[in-house]
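can u pls check wat happens w/ adenosine-5'-triphosphate
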Amino acid sequence: MMQGDDGAQLQCSVVVERLNSSGQATKRQVIRKAAVLLGRNEFQEIILRVHNGKVTESYTLKEFQLFTRFAKDGKCTVKLLPENVQVLISDCPPHLLNIFLKTLSIKHQAWQTSKPMTDREKLKACLPRSFETISPLQQKDVQKANELRSKVNAPVLSKGLVVRTGNKMTGGPPGQQVKRQRTDCDSSPLKALHPSKKPTLSLPAARKLNKEQAAVLSAVLSGKNVFFTGSAGTGKSFLLKRIVGSLPPKSTYATASTGVAACHIGGTTLHNFAGIGSGSAPLEQCIELAQRPGVLQHWTSCRHLIIDEISMVEAQFFDKLEAIARCLRRSTEPFGGIHLIVCGDFLQLPPISKEKDKATFCFQVRKSWRKCIHLNMELTEVRRQTDQSFISLLQAVRVGRYITEEVTAKLIKSAYHKIERDGILATRLCTHKDDVELTNDNKLQQLPGSVRVFEAVDSDPALVKTIDSQSPVSRLLQLKVGAQVMLTKNLDVQRGLVNGARGVVVDFQPGKLGLPRVRFLCGTTEALKPERWMFKAGGGLYLSRQQLPLKLAWAISIHKSQGMTLDCVEISLARVFERGQAYVALSRAKSLEGLRVMDFDPHVVRADPDVLHFYSKLRKERLLLQVSFWLYASFVLTVGPNVL
Ligand SMILES: Nc1ncnc2c1ncn2[C@@H]1O[C@H](COP(=O)(O)OP(=O)(O)OP(=O)(O)O)[C@@H](O)[C@H]1O
Ligand SMILES: [Mg+2]
């Protein structure tokens, strides 16, 4: 399953089609498990090799079209123009496809400016046939490509490479019911080559994984069932997104315990995946529910199951999933042999308990948890905050101990922090969700001026509830000039337009649409346009919502804030009712300066003793690999989990 991310090779499915002059396929070869390799021949020309396990076909990439619109779903098409052959690539880990496509386009651009040999020169050269894998992209390749781009004004792409991102490509995923629009090609690496936009190229994955994260990724890619944990802000979800992008899309399900958290990693809720409702019915009934058309396919096609925010998954629910997986997949292996990648911090919010009893954590169903998880790993480098003393303060709150007088004093003093800037107020994190709606509604009403209502375009209005449960934006968004808002999507990480960025509506653009302009804390004022979110629903169905990437941000609930990074927050902890709740609230802030705690009392800080015991036991038994220890981890991977 391992494949390098050097941009030279892919493991995927391939269809090779020979086309006639009117573009119809006259011959079609389907290769379910193919290896696609980029290399150079003896004349330094770029070669695409497709290997089906027995035979290798080679294509010289001189004049070709690339269709990359669905690259983020792991699909693309290379159409070789003189040969009239198209190679349709699918089920490819999107992150690797991204690097592959970028490598191909940048190397091809460089090749074109390097005076390719004529046929005559080739004949004369009498070189022996050869094939060498293409070298990984380097900063200098990117620089050269950028220099070339800055020299050329009009279409930077010379005649060999034509980039298409239109509908013509491979079509959507099977069963997909949504017609995608142009925004879907956002993540395409080749968008960067679109002549009209001319943005600067950069190496793929500009935000690199740190060593700890890379070690977890390699443990996952080695096929081990991994649970990785770490304090708030250690980049667990950041890493999960990379993991999702490194696994084959058809058989990978990215899920999280809550809709908001699922959205952060571009996935769906675990409940949605499982299709067993709340899971409180007896096992036999749950098995029946999971066999419904549309749901059964999740269970049978899933090879890699990713679960974020595991702390909020109820133990009995996890246990049921484990049993259902074995039953439906007719396998005696733990979790029916599904490769599990589980992540979260048990010292954050626990599962919501329906009855008065305390809800139990997944690790408390010791049998299935222990059976399922091969490796426990811990990320230790906090990325959300940079100030070491604030990081230490949060660590103290996390474990519910060491709340020294100094810590208390700092938090009490924060009540006087003036964090309002440029008309942008602090977001109030509320313990109870009724307060959230009330606060946002009241504040909006109190603003002068008329309300503008923006209605979402849903792919399937009948399924609005399902969409609501997974979407970070509501169907109706009401705004006024002066409304406090929060961005709900990463629009431009470099410019600080990231998920959670805080701003204020400054005006509405003239015209029918009247789109809002928002001034953000990072200093940028941006006119926002609708964005699209895709959700996987049952039966391979895709749902989508198109809406402005904004939500009102006078207040949000602590439960909804889990997983978020926030610019400026105000917290009242008087009504904290849950273990880990104060920690989740405080750890959303990027800095102490951006935080105001109205009424700090050390008694509200509570860490769950069962969790502390679980973590300390793992450590004592040397089962929790601090990944800074990553060489040791790679030793374990080669030797196998049983040595642990
Ligand atoms: N390797 C990295 N390079 C750059 N930024 C990173 C990296 N890892 C994490 N970050 C950034 O750090 C912040 C926190 O990351 P993330 O939300 O993934 O943490 P988390 O461990 O999931 O936190 P929580 O437990 O609160 O959900 C995010 O803004 C993320 O973009
Ligand atoms: Mg997270």
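Residues 153-197, 638-644 have pLDDT under 50 and may be disordered.
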